[in-house]
């Protein structure tokens, strides 16, 4: 059983050559067995081997053998390219995008460049004509057929050597069905476990809420007792303080009464003797009435004396005139 994996190239003379020689195809391992180690190439399927030329070979860019890279370098470059594409895709997915438009509305394109340009759905078309010289008719160019080179190699495939769907798909189907059933059972067990955990969490939350309510009630009761105790102590201190003040007042009053028992008569007697205690009627008579009365009496006596003096002078004058008249009559 022989097959060929080749990469077509052209030598300086223009002939096509192969870059690799034909090699035998390895037998496939059965289901569940590890593949044999590959020592000659990293590609197991010629459909994914980049060294195989597909399609039209006329426009292919063929590199010389010296410029070709080994399969490891090609695979490394492809891995780097895939990583760059995956990084670019993740960057595009993580980039902030415009949110969806509201119902009944739609987004429109807005120019954000420095220089605006007119956007139009009408394509500007212009008719341009050009005068060319006439050419003579010539026959069509013949189809280019490259010269055949190399050797033709065929592969004989016997009955049952290719992929048998019914035989190969049964273990895969068994694995898929088994994995689906196993995943379903795991999901059912996970759902039951989640339901049990939710029940336990709900019971725990109820118990915790009850304990918190009980703790809050005990704290409130303790706070009320503490406040009542402090209030009672304050009231007791205030009562003791008032009792002490009353006792001090009683003692001071008794001492004052005992001290002032003989002092009051002496003070009153001294004040009375110095004239601080007096009868208002007597005082008014002595200070107001008696001076006024004495002034009136003095005025009355002065008027009487004046009248008497005046009468005496008149009598004296009359007596003198009578004496003079008597003397003249003698």
UniProtKB/TrEMBL annotation:
Residues 1-43, 69-105 are annotated as: Disordered. Pfam families: Radial_spoke_3. It comes from Gasterosteus aculeatus aculeatus (three-spined stickleback). This is Radial spoke head 3. It comes from the Eukaryota. The keyword Transmembrane does not apply. Belongs to the flagellar radial spoke RSP3 family. PANTHER family: FLAGELLAR RADIAL SPOKE PROTEIN 3 (PTHR21648), RADIAL SPOKE HEAD PROTEIN 3 HOMOLOG (PTHR21648:SF0).
